[in-house]
């Protein structure tokens, strides 16, 4: 009998553990928001997080976007040729980058670069008793470590997404005008005329949501890391995996919300 | 006065603190000794509220520490952590002046820096150390910076967690002397946890021997050698023979 029931028991334990973790993450995210809006505030930590999350992510975001935009232009041109629709390259590059690839790629790059660094930093602080030291110095770790990073990510990732969108379109423009024979003026006019405000707004909202997810995952897994180097490594790995999956899931939900009707 | 009454703490089935009763009088330097893994750090963390005891009460000047205003409570404490626990991202002076740069004890930046440099001088470090980062310091220097941070806001109570762990005998002696001087000079209440007997003899007014989750013996340091308690005697002699099992 035990042989029959034990797989179900194991499955049950896994499901319960997963649900409990969702609950813990949700409570943590709620607390993070609460600490963002309640004093005391730490402007220096916020500015530092803003520079780390935003400014230092610019190279990776820019490079990712320009290559993706260029590749997208080539793919659309090649695919479009099959039904004589090569002319739509500027429009599809624009809509593809702004609505989908810009936010998702920037989100994933932020998960790789920022989530991992936040998780590793906070986890190291935990194992070296720096978090305990913060408490003994009358400083709430959620307020000092989590709130500035989450707020910075919510504010700066949409800006990165906007920049990624523009650079991605530029990548398509460079390939389109230099390799595929599009006229520069016509390419820009087609791009500009085709995009709508709602495309850009959805892109920026996705950026804010992805920034929130990336920062919360980094902070949560850092704060709850295990002991020693292995604990730090596991926290870092898990945070990036969780952030990437949640960003893709949130992207589906947001796309459904904005464009399903 | 810090009083612990029947304090219990367990992690799963492992009982770490099993009915601790201990009193530390104002201005007294209490050193808690015991082997590795006997719950000394857990005891200290319970007093500070970094961990919550399963049962029993801890009071500070008669007030239950679980019911007091946390900020006001922690403002009375300074703490030297075993590994220093300095913030890597901040220069030394900002580590020392951390409490003075934010919160209820906030001072102007220049004044906080002046105090930090003065505290660094007090622990034997020159002002040029102030702008270095913790990673640029040796272990002994990090301990001194940690000590400077613990005393920066002139707390009434200072906790020292294994203050000489990882230091050579000379640096250990320097840190022990500094701790004793500072505690006497400030008139602070001190609670130190250590298994270094040279620290005990320099720092302690009283000692408490922790083993099996209980205080096995407590008394003045002057009576320690003649205590007659088998746990204390074995611990002082460092012998493998006695009630404390060598393999734990």
TrEMBL record, chain A:
Transmembrane in keyword set: yes
Lineage, opening ranks: Bacteria, Pseudomonadati, Pseudomonadota, Alphaproteobacteria, Rhodobacterales
TM segment ranges: 12-33, 53-74, 150-175, 200-220, 240-259
Protein's name in the database: ABC transporter permease
Taxonomic superkingdom: Bacteria
Annotated keywords: Membrane, Transmembrane, Transmembrane helix
Automatic annotation (TrEMBL), chain B:
SUPFAM superfamilies in the cross-refs: P-loop containing nucleoside triphosphate hydrolases (SSF52540)
Pfam family, one: ABC_tran
SMART domains: AAA
UniProt keyword list: ATP-binding, Nucleotide-binding, Transport
GO molecular function, a single term: ATP binding
The keyword Magnesium belongs to this UniProt entry's keyword annotation: no
Species lineage: Bacteria, Pseudomonadati, Pseudomonadota, Alphaproteobacteria, Rhodobacterales
Domain ABC transporter: 2-237
Protein name: ATP-binding cassette domain-containing protein
